[in-house]
Write a structure and sequence with these properties.
The protein is of the alpha/beta class. The protein has a single domain, classed as Glycosidases (TIM Barrel). Helices cover about 35% and strands about 15% of the residues. The chain is built from 15 helices and 18 strands. A hairpin with a 4-residue loop joins β2 and β3. α6 packs parallel to α8.
């Protein structure tokens, strides 16, 4: 009744939320460096009428917590030892593209960045943790966006190929599990960070750079990213036969339920799944461009043309596995406008879900949704699945004894993992659970420290003050017990 004996137990973070040192070690700014949070509408860049380009212009009245984050750049060794203390056999983080190629379009890589990641990955191996490494986690070098418009420009394919070739050659002796583009299916909700795309050269609204991005820009980025993803698989396999290259999509949206059995809502839920997830998943995993996109492109008045060579590349070089994030489910009702954030899309409140996270975020908790998502994805793609993000953000601080008793987090994990096990019994090939995020990091969505996910508390706060001291929460020992028993402790409690 336990999980598979080689199941990956671990946690996941991202460079832009953990490392800090945003201009240290040769690194130059990336897209998340100019945002307080990725859902914010006003990035710290401004249009220059003389140069006809966007330039870095941070708001002096804002606190950009990610610039120092939780100082992981200098503390990763001690943090990884804390992770190993829970029994982790895997750990996910990302490579900040701008540490390897600071502006993104250089001919030669930054050796200091290479040495930084080599030491980090070596440390993981010394601690017997499998490195699970994301190549692009909301970290497109800012220069590529302000100079070229980001992924809307096909020149980024060549810059990307240079970057991934360097990374594979440098680290394939240490890393064999690679994720390409983190949650890139968020391209239409957060185009600047998810797809690294921005209208340049006379934007329609210079005061709102994100809002000036057009549908054509985003579909051009879609086109180029699909080609780049296929090249990544090809290059990764050619450089090292042991490399496994997978995609990573936000898949909370797969668990979009029709609000009722009205056929309009049933089909609307299907269309939401398609345009929130499968439009990227199908090319990545099946090697096909979905035919329903022809209707979408016609309706939006855009032109997207793949050459026969590009289609063949996409068809031939599909990913080895599918990894995803799941936080919560949503509902579709044609009479109700859907909204969303980093947790996924939401619609009408689901009356059957009684459990929800505490104030102030109050995300609905749907553990059965992760089982549903695993089954849908496996039925569709028949690829190994890895859950590389699942967790709950809470507003918490040390009590008078210097402790945090995060019982709700323990409850959240237990219920989701029990449903992961049910999916395994359903026949799903799920091979890992990497909790987001095992140490408190800067929230991607809100750009604050108040929203904490970790098993390890970090003394840092929204205004930027704090000692950065690490403290273990109750959930640390709870997750440790789960891992030590390979999940059996959960099943005995059912």
């Amino acid at each position: 009744m336990s999980f598979p004996k080689d199941f990956l137990w671990g946690g996941a973070i991202a460079a832009n939320q953990y490392e800090g040192a945003w201009l240290e070690g040769g690194k130059q700014p990336n897209v998340t460096d100019v945002l307080v949070g990725i859902m914010s509408r006003q990035p710290g860049i401004a249009w220059n009428d003389e140069t006809k380009k966007y330039e870095l212009k941070l708001d002096p009245d804002k606190v950009y917590l990610s610039h120092e984050a939780v100082d992981g750049y200098h503390r990763y060794r001690e943090d990884l030892k804390l992770m190993k203390g829970m029994g982790f056999n895997s750990f996910r983080t990302s490579i900040a593209w701008g540490r390897i190629y600071p502006n993104g379009d250089e001919e030669e890589p930054n050796q200091e960045g290479i040495e930084f990641y080599r030491d980090m990955f070596r440390c993981m191996r010394e601690l017997e943790m499998e490195p699970v490494i994301t190549l692009s986690h909301y970290e497109t070098p800012l220069h590529l966006v302000t100079e070229y418009g980001g992924w809307r420009d096909p020149r980024l394919i060549e810059y990307w190929k240079r970057y991934v070739t360097t990374v594979f050659r440098e680290f394939s002796d240490l890393v064999h599990m690679w994720l390409t583009f983190n949650e890139v299916n968020n391209a239409f909700r957060i185009p600047l960070v998810a797809a690294g795309v921005l209208t340049v050269n006379d934007p329609k609204d210079p005061s709102d750079p994100i809002g000036s991005t057009t549908n054509q820009d985003i579909w051009d980025a879609y086109h180029n990213i699909l080609v780049a993803n296929a090249w990544t698989v090809k290059i990764g396999h050619e450089i090292c036969a042991d490399n496994q290259v997978g995609c990573m999509l936000t898949s909370s949206n797969v668990a979009t339920y029709p609000y009722n059995c009205d056929p309009q809502n049933v089909f609307g839920a299907l269309e939401t799944q398609r345009m929130a997830n499968f439009y990227f998943g199908d090319p990545f995993c099946l090697g096909i461009i979905p035919t329903y996109l022809n209707k979408v492109w016609k309706k939006q008045g855009v032109t997207v043309v793949f050459t026969e060579e590009e289609r063949e590349l996409i068809r031939k070089y599909t990913v080895d596995f599918f990894s995803f994030s799941y936080y919560r489910s949503g509902t579709y009702d044609a009479e109700f406008e859907m909204s969303g954030d980093t947790g996924g899309l939401t619609g009408r409140t689901n009356p059957y879900l009684k459990d929800k996270a505490p104030e102030p975020w109050k995300w609905p908790v749907d553990p059965e949704g992760i089982r549903y998502t695993l089954n849908v994805l496996y039925d569709r793609y028949h690829l190994p699945l890895y859950i590389v993000e699942n967790g709950v953000g809470l507003d918490e601080d040390l009590d008078e004894n210097g402790e945090i008793h995060d019982t709700f987090r323990c409850h959240y994990i237990d219920e989701h993992l029990r449903n992961v096990h049910k999916a395994l019994e359903d026949g799903v090939d799920c091979r890992g659970y990497l909790y987001w995020g095992p140490i408190d990091v800067v929230s991607a969505g809100t750009g604050e420290m108040k929203k904490r996910y970790g098993f390890v508390y970090v003394d840092r706060f929204n205004d930027g003050h704090g000692t950065l001291e690490r403290r273990i929460k109750d959930s640390y020992y709870h997750y440790k017990e789960i891992i030590e028993s390979n999940g059996e402790v959960l099943l005995k409690e059912e």
